[in-house]
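ok so i was messing around last nite and threw this chain in just to see what happens. nothing serious, just curious
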Amino acid sequence: MVSLNKFLIIFLILGCTSCAKVGYLWDQGLGQMRLLSQGRANQEVLDDPSVSIEIKEKIKLIEKYKDFFYRYWSMKPSGIYSETTLLKGDAVTYLVIASPFDKIEARKHCFPFMGCFPYLGFFSKQKAQDFARELEEDRMETYVRPVYAYSTLGYFEDKVLSSFFHYDDYGLSELIFHELFHTLFFIKDEVDFNEALATYFAREMALEYFAWNDQQIQAKEAQERRQALISSAFATNIKNLNEELKKRSFKTPIEAKTFRESYWKETLKPNIEKVCTDNPGKGCFPLNKPWNNASLAAFMTYENKGEDIKSLHKSLGIDLKSFFLHLKKSYSNYKKNKKKQSFSDSFLERPKK
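result:
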């Protein structure tokens, strides 16, 4: 367990430079401490007759995935995921994403050392909803979404959370590899690229762990290609909608919402329906939920560069471990050269012919 003294030092370092955020930081710190303090050693949970067999099997799987992860990278295992916290609710935390009513752009929240994030997270669903209402009073559009897993980037020994158990065995492996990858590599101020990298490396590791045959891999890749095509088309249409919003001077949120709904019905929806029809498969996710500027901004935040990462890896013709070394070396050179462009753009940039 992390000592309270250590936490207070971290809190003071972060909070003293931004007094307006002290209340939020303090509340989040206490929430994190409660989460840590509620953890029980995995073996204790496995020996507890009141805990279901299903939960115990998930914990055993997570221990296997963790062991594979550290052996894969030839690292000494950390204390992460050595304890389990059984949550009272389904989610561990809730993200609040906000965007102005007249453009699709996530409001950023910045902290010393950690950089800026296009959201704020709350352990309490009620506090997340209260914060969203405050933003809405300031004429912002908001989106509150549950989170089932997150990483403290190695600052604390993260626990196995009962919210992990929503995933099937394969999805759980990708989740564990994803969150653990964040402890190996994280770039300040590039949330979307961090997620893209973690997702890509987790996927590749999961394929190696399960040793799928060619047919299984091809089926999964076909499904991923379809999702990528739909996501790419949706992202392009969102960018077009945003440009249309910026061209107009809306005086009220109602005016902007009316225009967006009209654009969705007449342009965006038909475009996405065509992409889904031209690429047969299961579901057409952009059409399955209502959207506002905040949820669209959230989608764009996580509309990652996974395909670009995959293409670069393939073009280099090296295995995953060598690709990771290439990533770290590239980041080291980037910091030395102090380029103006983002690291993701620098890393994925192809030489001009």
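not much to say yet. Residues 214-247 form the longest helix (34 residues).
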